[in-house]
Amino acid sequence: IKLLKKLEKQRMQELAAKEQPEKEEEQKEDKGRHYTLSVALPGSILNNAQSLELRTYLAGQIARACAIFCVDEIIVFDEHGEDAKSVEGEFSGIGKKGKACVQLARILQYLECPQYLRKSFFPKHEDLQFAGLLNPLDSPHHMRVDEDSQYREGVVLDRPTKPGRGSFVNCGMRKEVRIDKQLDPGLRVTVRLEEPQNPDSKVRQGTVVSSHHPRTASGLYWGYSVRLASCLSAVFSECPFKEGYDLSIGTSERGCSVDQASLPSFRHALVVFGGLQGLEAGVDADPNLEVTDPSVLFDFYLNTCPSQGSRTIRTEEALLISLSSLRPHIEEAVKTPRDSQGKEKP
Ligand SMILES: C[S@@+](CC[C@H](N)C(=O)[O-])C[C@H]1O[C@@H](n2cnc3c(N)ncnc32)[C@H](O)[C@@H]1O
Questions:
Q1: H/E element holding 170?
Q2: Which range is least confidently modeled, 88-97, 150-159, 190-199, 204-213?
Q3: pTM strictly above 0.85
Q4: Mutational pocket test of ligand 1: of 61, 249, 253, 320, the residue with most ligand atoms within 8 Å of the beta carbon
Q5: What is the β-pairing status of strands 73-77 and 36-42?
Q6: pLDDT digits (tens, 9 = 90+) for 146-170
Q7: Which residues are bridge partners to 193 per DSSP?
Q8: Would the pLDDT of 126 be above 50?
Q9: Phi then psi for 151, rounded to 5 degrees?
């Protein structure tokens, strides 16, 4: 019996040793990105542009900068804090100043939406009068009709189907896609296309997945969401991630040099920009904030362009400069291995 037990133990040890490389292989194959990057900026920056054409172009620059650096969430906040007394419920700061926030948010959303879905989600609106002329984001979820892809964005069609037989979705392909779930028409969905496909079938088969699935499962950049915040404090208090932002960075020419920064590992990072008067304006106008110095709101307060040659760097320029200079620091910070749930590994 002793010998049998010893042999069994030996066998278990051998099996465990064999399993180890497989587990390591699995880890290597995890191509997902398990962190997010959010950017917040005041809608008032549109007020510095003189015409609707220039306002639109400025919004396009913000959208392109965020797509280039794989930003997952853009928060447009009202730095005048018009609606600051109530941070709950729907955004209602659509006064003269609030209009810039809504207009910026609308153009950002329009550009994020794949071209073939825009008709379904964006009825004619004066804010979008020149948006069709803007440079496209050209991000991985903006598919061309014959492009092959594991995932696609789509809209659920108003087409009757038998109960239990799912719904039809327009994913911008020649064939429609039948998804596994019955969903309300008009809903925007992310679909994983099933392989192998049957070339003789009139429809393709797909499964509905969450919009962050392409990022977490395959590391694909899948566009950004847009959120309105009625004041600077609401950027933090209305965070959509239940754990909140675990790394916050304020940007200012009065911050510490980005060159010396060493960022800790994080799951949800937030980078905040000010408008014409800097982040101070947002802090002063927000009755929820008792501080006067914006630097105390953030884990890091960084000057991302030390020795700048122009007296002021505009917010749209600061966005490109900051995301570019933060990129290596972010890459370094997220090197810490994490499991599929994003938890740090011991
Ligand atoms: C026009 S600037 C604001 C200038 C304003 N006079 C001030 O003193 O902050 C707009 C925004 O761009 C960003 N910015 C400008 N220069 C920066 C720098 N050197 N480093 C980091 N961010 C900067 C900040 O977010 C700033 O609030």
A1: strand 168-170
A2: 88-97
A3: yes
A4: 253
A5: parallel
A6: 999 999 999 999 998 888 899 999 9
A7: 206
A8: yes
A9: -125, 150
| Counts of helices then strands in the chain (DSSP H, E) | 8, 11
Q: For 306, which DSSP code? A: T
Average pLDDT over residues 213-239: 97
Q: What are phi and psi of 56, to 5 degrees?
A: -65, -45
Q: Please tell me if the CB atom of residue 278 comes closer than 6 angstroms to any atom of ligand 1.
A: yes
Pocket flag, ligand 1, residue 272 (CB < 6 Å)? no
50-86: pLDDT as tens digits: 899 999 999 999 999 999 999 999 999 999 876 444 3
CB distance 38 to ligand 1 below 6 Å: no
Probe residue for ligand 1, chosen from 39, 249, 252, 273 as the CB with the greatest number of ligand atoms within 8 Å: 252
Q: Which two tokens stand for residue 194?
A: 């099933």
Rounded distance, CA 85 to CA 307, Å?
39
User: Is residue 305 in contact with ligand 1, taking CB distance under 6 Å?
Assistant: yes
Bridge partners for 216 per DSSP? none
Closest-CA residue, ligand 1 atom 15, reads: 313
Q: Which of 312, 322, 324 to mutate to test the pocket of ligand 1 (most atoms within 8 A of CB)?
A: 312
Token pair belonging to 295? 């630097």
Indicate whether residue 323 lines ligand 1 (CB < 6 A).
no
Asked whether 237 lines ligand 1 (CB < 6 A), one says no
Question: Can you tell me the mean pLDDT for 23-29?
Answer: 50
- Give bridge partners of residue 75 from the DSSP assignment: 40, 227
